[in-house]
Amino acid sequence: MLAFTLRFIKNKRYFAILAGALVIIAGLASQHAWSGNGLPQINGKALAALAKQHPVVVLFRHAERCDRSDNTCLSDSTGITVNGAQDARALGKAFSADIQNYNLYSSNTVRTIQSATWFSAGRSLT
C-alpha cells in the first residue's frame, strides 16, 4: 500500500488532484458540522426530534441593529432595521415549521422585543 501511495504521489498531477479533493472534502465536512463562529450547528428537524425527548432552550440574538447599520430603521433608532425584521421573520418561519409549541422570552430592549415579535409573527412574549 505504501509503495502504491509513493508512486501515486510522484506524479504531481495526481497529487494535486488528491490534495484538492481532500481540501474540498475537509471543507465541506467542517462546514456541515460547524458554523462560522465555531459552534455546532443543528438543523430544525434534529432540533425538533431533540425537543420531543428533552427540554430544549434555544437562544437567538437580536436581528440587525439600527444603530450599527446603514440600512433603514424599522422604527425606533434603538431597534432593528427593516432587513433585520425580515431576517427575523424568515428565521421564525423556518423554526416554526419544525417546532410549533414554544415559549418566547425577550429582554426589555427595543431591538430584542422587535426581533422576538417579528420572529414569532406577533405571538405574545412570555
Q: What's the gist of this structure?
A:
Its EC number is 3.1.3.-. Helix content is 54%, strand content 0%.
| Fraction in helix | 40-55%
Estimated radius of gyration: 22 Å
Could you tell me the mean pLDDT? 79
Number of strands: 0
| Poorly predicted tracts of residues | 30-34
Please report the number of helical segments. 5
N-to-C span: 63 Å
Give the strand content. Answer: under 5%
GO molecular function: hydrolase activity
EC number: 3.1.3.-
Protein name: Lipopolysaccharide core heptose(II)-phosphate phosphatase
Keywords: Hydrolase
What does this structure look like?
This protein has 126 residues and is mainly alpha-helical. It folds into 2 domains: 1-38; 42-126, no CATH class. Helices cover 54% and strands 0% of the residues. The chain has 5 helices and no strands. α3 packs across α4 and α4 (82-98) crosses α5. The chain is globular and about 45 Å long. Its EC number is 3.1.3.-.
Write the layout of secondary structure elements.
Layout: H1 2-10, H2 12-33, H3 44-53, H4 82-98, H5 110-119
Q: Which descriptors would you attach to this protein?
A:
hydrolase, 126 residues, 5 helices, mainly alpha, globular, single chain, EC 3.1.3.-
